[in-house]
Specification:
By secondary structure, the protein is mostly helical. It has 24 helices and no strands.
């Protein structure tokens, strides 16, 4: 009975609310909620970790900062190391929902350990499990979205995911600090467990389109000669799948998909740009609150609110994704890095405790946030475009199940590396050379990154291939070819 309700059995009777549970918008909501939950649980405990270390784990006050850094590094290291394996496993798995549920159970276990942990070993293990869960959620969740929406609207879809991630980054630390101050240690984890319950409910209700197909095809009325099946559009991304190989000979050797992906200059450029975007974003984590406190004499709450103008522009991410689907990712990502460079450099002008300087700081942070959001969303979609282009150029090169999860595993690895580099970059440069030098180096990094982005994003930009690449990078709609079809004509090596 439970298998029938959840849509996991072989019953001829369709599970309840099948069309709703396999609808594109419901799957997008479920994956976005999974991403939100992952980031939310990561961020909401940040204000209570120092308390847990000093009063529950018995760490001396002088060592608290050291162990806070260790716990942050453990999370990022687990995310970075586990992502390739999780991507490979997800592409081998017959469905995406089971790994998502395993990831959520892992996250639940990690949260329990962090809640009741009273030793360094338990807290470190909890953070390790959090990193493992994040690796599963990001690789499997983004691959599931590609399976669901196909390539045409993937930019807008990734924009929605980026919005969920930004909202969690914005809300979690503030809520954790307020709840901890007013209601205590365990109240923070009550909120965390409530979010997990909501998330697991959505993941249990979700039915993948390729699973729903066996019932929806039977339920659909037969199409007329002049009218296509009503399922043809909704299930197109699922029915398409990896392109079959046309090669009749049996290859003696084929590189693993993840190595094939890494051989693509176009994908490497996108991944390095994602690493830089993460570096630029997280570089402020270790320096902005301290600089605001020392310059403006703000409390930790006021300094923390400075992240609002940096993250708020991310709420336009779905619109950015929509534009990337229609006009291609190249110039939007390029403009994002180029736009972020000047305000990053100009942050060095903020040096005095005056109202105009405070307004200037907030305005510059908002411009930086807008540029980084414009850069990130098209690059997330570019990962899908590259896999699609490779499949069209060499059908079957990634095997029967494709390589979307492994591609987003690589995205995870590079993004996690950026989150490790950013705080170290910001902290060391400010400590050694000052705020002005840090802002200058970050601005130069954004400017330099814009060059490979404009050259490689959407296919190598050469005089010979310019028309083929630029002529239609947008998503397919109507009689317009999709990004993958056009990019297959460009150089994807």
């Amino acid at each position: 009975m439970f298998a029938w309700l959840l849509g996991t059995g072989d019953s001829a009777k369709p599970p309840p609310f099948l069309k709703l549970r396999s609808a594109r918008w419901f799957i997008l909501m479920t994956v976005s909620c999974a991403v939100f939950t992952d980031i939310f649980l990561y961020g909401i405990i940040v204000p209570v970790v120092p308390f847990a270390l000093s009063t529950r784990a018995g760490v001396p006050e002088d060592d608290v900062q050291h162990w806070v850094s260790v716990l942050l590094a453990v999370y990022g290291g687990a995310l970075l190391i586990a992502s390739p394996f999780c991507g490979w496993l997800a592409d081998k798995s017959p469905n995406r929902r089971l790994p998502l549920l395993v990831g959520l159970l892992t996250l639940g276990g990690a949260t329990v350990m962090l809640c009741v942990g009273s030793s360094i070993g338990v807290l470190v293990t909890g953070r390790l499990l959090q990193g493992l869960s994040a690796a599963i959620v990001w690789t499997v969740g983004l691959a599931l979205l590609v399976d669901t929406v196909g390539q045409t609207d993937i930019g807008q879809t990734m924009g929605s995911v980026f919005l969920a991630m930004s909202l969690a980054f914005l809300v979690a630390p503030l809520l954790g600090g307020i709840v901890y101050a007013r209601a205590g240690y365990y109240a923070v984890f009550y909120i965390a467990f409530g979010v997990i319950v909501l998330d697991i409910s959505l993941r249990l209700l979700l039915i993948e389109k390729k699973v729903a197909r066996k019932w929806l095809v039977e339920l659909a009325p037969p199409p007329t000669a002049a009218e296509p099946s009503p399922l043809s559009t909704d299930l197109a991304p699922t029915l398409r799948g990896p392109l079959p190989s046309t090669d009749t000979t049996t290859p003696r050797f084929r590189l693993p998909p993840i190595l094939t992906l890494l051989s693509s200059r176009r994908l490497l450029s996108a991944l390095v740009a994602c690493l830089v975007q993460a570096t630029l974003t997280t570089a402020f984590d270790s320096v902005l609150p301290l600089y605001a406190a020392s310059t403006f004499h703000w409390t930790s709450t006021g300094a923390g609110l400075l992240f609002l103008p940096l993250i708020t522009p991310s709420f336009g991410a779905p619109l950015i994704g929509f534009l990337a689907d229609r006009h291609g990712p190249r110039y939007i990502a390029f403009a994002g890095f180029l736009f972020a460079a000047p305000p990053l450099v100009l942050l060095r002008l903020v040096t005095a405790n005056t109202l105009p300087q405070k307004v200037l700081l907030c305005a510059l942070l908002a411009l930086v946030g807008a540029g980084l959001a414009a850069a990130m969303v098209p690059l997330m979609a570019e990962v899908t475009y590259v896999v699609e282009a490779r499949e069209r150029k060499a059908p079957g090169c990634f095997g029967e199940r494709g390589a979307y999860a492994q591609a987003y595993a690589l995205f995870n690895v590079f993004f996690a590396a950026g989150t490790l580099i950013g705080p170290i970059w910001g902290g060391f440069v400010v400590g050694g050379a000052g705020w002005g030098v840090m802002s200058l180096t970050l601005g130069l990094l954004a400017l330099v990154t814009s060059v490979p982005v404009v050259v490689y994003t959407g296919g190598v930009w050469t005089r010979k291939g310019k028309a083929g690449v630029e002529g239609g990078e947008g998503g397919g709609g109507g009689g317009v070819r999709s990004e993958g079809e056009k990019a297959a004509e460009a150089e994807v090596r």
